[in-house]
Amino acid sequence: MSKFYVDFWSREWIDQNQFPEATLESFQQAYADRDLGVAFSGGGTRSAACTLGQLKALDELGLLPRVKYISAVSGGGWAATPFSYTHDLDQYFGKISDPENITLSNSKSVLPKSLQEAITQSPLVSNLLEGGLKLRGDESFAYSLGKVFLKPYGLDNPNHYFTFNNETKALAKQGFPRG
């Protein structure tokens, strides 16, 4: 087995070190109660894993309720879309451990139906082949991503709408106003 190295900041290091902006009174007052917008970049499953960790960090910091706007591209969207519709954050996040507590044995188990499971056990290639065999053509990749990242959350059926609530569903079904 080849070796790999990981750099991380432990919870102990974070607690012992101050971030300058956190101590500025003007920073604390100006941003204490504002809504937040976050953007997640693309990069496939690595970006999905990064987005999962960033969302978990926002949750642990108590900032998640203030997040009102999310923009995501590619792999970031694979994680952000199910997050936007989940009703069970614990299930969505799975078991995320602090880096110093990760071992080879506990890194192999993930919570079923969590985004961790979708990322670590994603059968993207086999789903891509299945989509191709079902003559989905250029939709094969979308089909594959839907099965891996959206199906566990009931968001994989292209014939069903999924929106914020019934009011936005009705608006979406009406279509855009013609100009």
From TrEMBL:
Coiled coil: none annotated. The keyword Transmembrane helix does not apply. GO terms for molecular function: phospholipase A2 activity. It comes from the Bacteria. This is PNPLA domain-containing protein. GO terms for biological process: glycerophospholipid catabolic process. Keywords: Lipid metabolism. The keyword Lipid metabolism applies. GO terms for cellular component: cytosol. Residues 39-88 form the PNPLA domain.
